[in-house]
């Protein structure tokens, strides 16, 4: 019988590239020639590309134990030294998975792979630590930055994001100024990060000055994200005219308007009670070839619900489906919440029950909103049914609401249902001691004979 042709290192790389299943790719990498001649052969000569491909697949799939096995195997290679980019990628995978210590370990072990560390791998480590929220570790790592090179634009961008993420905007501005004084050009990402944070902190005037300085001194146009952040900030402080002025400025400067810009303005119009201007803005969107997305529609749904115009909100849902824009949980939760707060608990319950038919499965927030709404409306029996389904689906209710439910049932004298609810809460390990003491206290005052009966009921359940 003729033996099958052996897979070459080049062929292995090709097969790894097209294999989408990381587990099968790993199996192929570990045993590229399972049907070859059983006689002793030379070790398979893996190429650097094969290592790069399998590391990437395992990293994206978060198969980190297997990834480290491959790294250990690669360390034994004598034919080549792995390039720095491979370790940068590995640290990035660990950063996304919030595995800060593993990212640090990879960086520390790079010399044992005969790979020199430069500012590029240092930046990868810094960014991984930032994504893990390890700001103190970032500061410690920064103390040795001179060993790896001079900080570049990427280094400063990461630091600015880190300071903004840790609510230290003043230091973020200092880093931004230092970056420019060192002759490094901030990117749109840098500017966008600072502008967004300034606007979030209601320092919109500073954000506008920064944007204008960027254009005047650097001669560079801010991108759509910068404009969207500024418009949102301006709308938040009631400066609608300035926000629309920025939108017109984008048109004049031929900067592409996206759905985020229009969604911000539509939301602001509805909050300001200027509902009649929304259709014109939607028409303008269409003229510029910008289709409304889920965020746009959700802004409209939220605005109509604020006005208690639920029919308009339902029409928006129907329009989303007609235009191929799938509603998400937020689309439905906004309506459920508004119906409950408007006292329309029955309509909210029916709408909730209709969600599976609409292709949406309720999330934790959906359950909590309906449960809270039913409790607030005094519909404790209905709330108890929703609670039972919540617990079955693994959705933990808030203590304050379950306490209110039990208290309401006690006041109604429905002790049988109280026992069922307490049993469900106990099984889910969310029965608070205060709730139990409240039930016992109520029974002792009003129906002492029911105390032992309730305890017996709970014991049986």
Overview of the molecule:
The protein has 461 residues and is an all-alpha fold. The protein has a domain at 150-224. 69% of the residues lie in helices and 0% in strands. It is built from 26 helices and no strands. The protein has helices at 9-18, 22-30, 48-60, 64-75, 84-96, 100-109, 119-131, 135-142, 153-165, 169-181, 188-200, 204-218, 224-236, 240-252, 259-271, 278-287, 294-306, 310-322, 329-341, 345-353, 364-376, 380-392, 399-412, 415-427, 433-446, 449-460. α15 packs parallel to α17, α21 packs antiparallel against α22 and α22 crosses α23. The model has no long low-confidence stretch (mean pLDDT 87).
Query: Tell me, what's the shape?
Result: globular
Q: What level of helicity do the residues show?
A: 55-70%
Tell me the number of helical segments per DSSP (H or I, 4 or more residues long).
Answer: 26
Whole-number average pLDDT? 87
Main β-sheet, in a few words? none
- Which strand-content bin applies to the residues? under 5%
Pattern of helices and strands = HHHHHHHHHHHHHHHHHHHHHHHHHH
Total beta-strand segments: 0
Task: Quickly give the structural class.
Answer: mainly alpha
Q: Rg, please?
A: 30 Å
Unreliably modeled segments? none
Distance between the termini: 68 Å
PPR repeats: 152-186, 223-257, 258-292, 293-327, 328-362, 363-397
Family: Belongs to the PPR family. P subfamily.
Protein name: Putative tetratricopeptide-like helical domain-containing protein
Organism: Rosa chinensis (China rose)
């Amino acid at each position: 019988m003729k033996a099958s042709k052996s897979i070459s290192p080049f062929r292995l790389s090709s097969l790894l590239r097209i294999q989408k299943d990381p587990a099968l790719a790993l199996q192929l990498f570990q045993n590229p020639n399972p049907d070859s001649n059983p006689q002793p052969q030379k070790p398979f000569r893996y190429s650097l590309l094969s290592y790069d491909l399998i590391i990437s697949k395992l990293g994206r799939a978060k198969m980190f134990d297997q990834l480290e096995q491959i790294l250990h195997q690669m360390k034994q290679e004598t034919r080549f030294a792995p390039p720095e980019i491979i370790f940068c990628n590995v640290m990035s995978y660990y950063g996304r998975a919030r595995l800060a210590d593993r990212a640090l370990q990879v960086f520390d072990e790079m010399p044992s792979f005969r790979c020199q560390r430069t500012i590029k791998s240092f930046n990868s480590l810094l960014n991984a630590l930032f994504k893990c929220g390890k700001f103190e570790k970032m500061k410690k790592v920064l103390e040795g930055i001179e060993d790896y090179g001079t900080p570049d634009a990427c280094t400063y961008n990461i630091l600015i994001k880190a300071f903004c993420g840790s609510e230290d905007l003043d230091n973020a501005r200092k880093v931004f100024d230092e970056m420019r004084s060192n002759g490094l050009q901030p990117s749109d990402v840098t500017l966008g990060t600072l502008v967004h944070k300034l606007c979030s902190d209601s320092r919109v005037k500073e954000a506008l000055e920064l944007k204008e300085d960027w254009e005047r001194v650097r001669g560079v146009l801010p991108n759509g994200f910068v404009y969207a952040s500024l418009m949102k900030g301006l709308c938040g402080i009631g400066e609608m005219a300035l926000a629309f002025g920025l939108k017109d400025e984008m048109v004049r400067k031929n900067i592409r308007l996206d759905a985020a810009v229009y969604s911000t303005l539509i939301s602001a119009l509805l909050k300001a009670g200027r509902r009649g201007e929304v259709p014109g803005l939607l028409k303008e969107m269409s003229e510029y070839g910008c289709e409304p997305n889920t965020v746009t529609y959700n802004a409209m749904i939220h605005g109509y619900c604020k006005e208690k115009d639920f029919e308009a909100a339902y029409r928006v849902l129907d329009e989303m489906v007609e235009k191929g824009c799938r509603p998400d949980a937020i689309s439905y939760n906004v309506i459920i919440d508004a119906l409950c707060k408007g006292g329309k608990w029955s309509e909210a319950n029916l709408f909730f029950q209709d969600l599976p038919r609409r292709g949406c499965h309720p999330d934790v927030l959906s359950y909590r909103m309906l449960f809270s709404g039913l409790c607030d409306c005094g519909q404790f029996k209905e709330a108890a049914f929703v609670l039972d389904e919540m617990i079955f689906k693994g959705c933990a209710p808030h203590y304050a609401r379950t306490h209110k439910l039990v208290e309401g049932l006690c006041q109604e004298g429905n002790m049988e249902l109280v026992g069922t609810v307490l049993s469900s809460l106990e099984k889910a390990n969310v029965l608070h001691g205060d709730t139990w003491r409240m039930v016992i206290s109520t029974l002792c005052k009003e129906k002492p004979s029911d105390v032992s009966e309730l305890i017996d009921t709970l014991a049986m359940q």
